Amino acid sequence: MAKGKSNGGVQNRAIYSRVSFLQQAAVFLASSPSPSPLPPQPLSVPPRHSSTVSAPASAIDSVSAPGSSLSLQGMSRRLATDLRSVSLKTRIRLSPALKQTICKFCDSILVERETCTSSIENKSKGGNKPWADVLVRKCHTCGRERRYPVHATRQRRKGERDVASVDSPPQKQQQQQQDG
């Protein structure tokens, strides 16, 4: 007997789970705090010797150097690059929210107040048009800015507006005559 096709489920589940893992790992590494360097401590010789020998400070600093925040940022950028390359090679589309968390120019993960700054601009006359709001994200790594429209409800075109709103001036005149 042949196996029946299952209609439910997601195609390429393994690829989506790999992309999800790469994104989660990159965000974790980008947002992890930089470790504080350990204070220099003398290294002791095994108990059979009675004297203690202290190691030079540079040797201890080199032991704690691999955990620095720069190497974590580098690993985070590498994972983001891998994420982008996996999605391009397998031809799956990344969601716009996921694409907005990765800098297009340097592949660093954009974490608010840590690796990027965000502001909202409105360059319309006097900033009166709410649909002209633009979210500006500036990457601290490369200094580049990306602009994303902020979705606000726009007013309908004049021909598509409700008939009641078009007929409102005569109604106001009638109300003023009744009040006056």
Structure description:
Mean pLDDT is 77; it is low at 49-64. The chain has six helices and three strands; from the N terminus they run H-H-H-H-E-E-E-H-H. The chain has 180 residues and is mainly alpha-helical. Strand 2 and strand 3 (145-149) form a beta hairpin. Helix content is 38%, strand content 9%. It starts with 12 loop residues before the first helix and ends with a helix. The chain has a three-stranded antiparallel β-sheet, with no helix packed on it. The protein has helices spanning 13-31, 57-64, 69-90, 96-99, 163-166, 168-179; strands at 116-121, 134-139, 145-149. The longest helix is centred in the middle third of the chain and has 22 residues, at 69-90.
Name some characteristics of this structure.
flat, three-stranded antiparallel β-sheet, mainly alpha, 180 residues
**How does the helix and strand content classify structurally?**
mainly alpha
Helix run count: 6
Query: How can the largest sheet be summarized?
Result: 3 strands, antiparallel
Extended strand count: 3
Distance between the termini: 87 Å
Overall 3D form: flat
Helix and strand run? HHHHEEEHH
Average pLDDT works out at 77
Strand residue content: 5-15%
Spatial order of strands in the largest sheet? 1-2-3
Provide the helix percentage.
Answer: 25-40%
- Specify Rg, calculated over alpha carbons: 29 Å
Low-confidence stretches: 49-64
